[in-house]
Design brief:
With 304 residues, the chain is α/β, with parallel strands linked by helices. 37% of the residues lie in helices and 17% in strands. It has 11 helices and 9 strands. The strands form 2 sheets. Strands 4, 5, 6, 7, 8 and 9 form a 6-stranded mixed sheet that branches. Strands 1-2-3 form a 3-stranded antiparallel sheet, with no helix packed on it. Helix 4 (92-99) crosses helix 5. The chain binds zinc ion. Residues 31, 33-34, 36, 51, 53-54, 56 line the site of zinc ion.
């Protein structure tokens, strides 16, 4: 959706309110407290319903990222639109300029809230055919100067370890991905990652590293690399790592360790929705159904 298309579709608060009501309650109001389907709309600027059963009032923004916010709905929708339409992500300063906001703090708050919604709402495990590999990523500490690739200050740059999984279509095209920061490349760590990323019974392709030797719940297809470069064999997962590294440098001038989890969440969110900007828009606003079973993150990613 272009900016002009956004303006046409959401000209004012009322249009934004209608969109949220349609998305949140496509089959009519359902009380979140007692599941009653009968209620009436109150005369409020922001769409609000009163349940005919328990009498509780529910605003369309209750429980979403816009909960208790005094910012106009249109500001929220426009911010979500900007964040989802910039494939490389956006800084709070850029967002402030695009929204024409007077305050940097407001832009920062909006971005922070929207990013929190990027903590993967899609917890379905990867299916069928899954490429899995691990890599290292350089990171900067808080006050490290930028290296700019000149090799100076190398000692100030640390490395974090990362595992990645890519679901492949039958034609070998990458579909959804999972990324996690991991403590080490040991067999228990990598097995936990595979278990948390790929559905039981999925066919798992790895480079044959001994860390993947024991995968009892998956069909393991180790690719013995030999003379061939690893990126030829594990094409999809290496493409994801390469994109991640480029994004880290281009958008953030290198990742900082303290924010690694947030970067990974955002990257996975953007990648998994790269062809579904409308779904991305809705999930950023907190309108998508959220499922939160335990995942590999709870197992593997507690240190970040
Ligand atoms: Zn109710």
């Amino acid at each position: 959706m272009s900016r002009a298309a956004f303006e046409a579709r959401f000209p004012d608060e009322a249009a934004c309110g209608r969109h949220l009501v349609e998305r949140r309650w496509p089959e009519g109001f359902v009380c979140p407290h007692c599941r009653n389907r009968r209620g009436w709309r109150l005369r409020r600027p922001r769409p609000t319903f009163q349940c005919a059963g328990c009498r509780k009032q529910t605003s369309v923004t209750a429980g979403t990222v816009m909960h208790r916010s005094h910012l106009p709905l249109r500001t929220w929708l426009f911010a979500a639109h900007i964040v989802t339409s910039h494939s490389n992500g956006i800084s709070a300063l850029q967002l402030q300029a695009q929204l024409g906001l007077g305050s940097y703090e407001t832009a920062w708050f909006l971005l922070h809230r929207l990013r929190r919604a990027m903590v993967d709402p899609d917890r379905r495990l990867l299916q069928d055919l899954v490429e899995i590999d691990e890599t290292e990523l350089p990171y900067r500490r808080k006050h490290d100067p930028l290296d700019h690739g000149r090799g100076r200050g190398r000692s100030a740059v640390g490395k974090m370890r990362l595992a990645g999984a890519v679901e492949l279509s039958p034609a070998g095209e990458p579909r959804r991905i999972r990324l996690a920061s991991i403590a080490d490349f040991s067999a228990p760590t990598l097995t936990a990652f595979v278990d948390g990323a790929a559905a039981p019974g999925a066919k798992v392709i790895t480079d044959g590293w001994r860390g993947y030797a024991d995968l009892p719940r998956h069909e393991h297809v180790p690719k013995t690399i030999g003379e061939m470069a690893a990126h030829v064999v594990m094409k999809a997962v290496h493409r994801v790592f390469a994109n991640l590294k480029r994004w880290a440098l281009g958008t953030f001038h290198g990742f900082r360790r303290a924010h690694l989890r947030r970067y990974l969440d955002e990257f996975v969110f953007r990648w998994n929705r790269r062809r579904h900007t409308r779904a991305a828009f809705d999930s950023l606003l907190g309108l998508a159904t959220r499922l939160t079973p335990a995942t590999y993150r709870d197992v593997v990613d507690q240190r970040v």
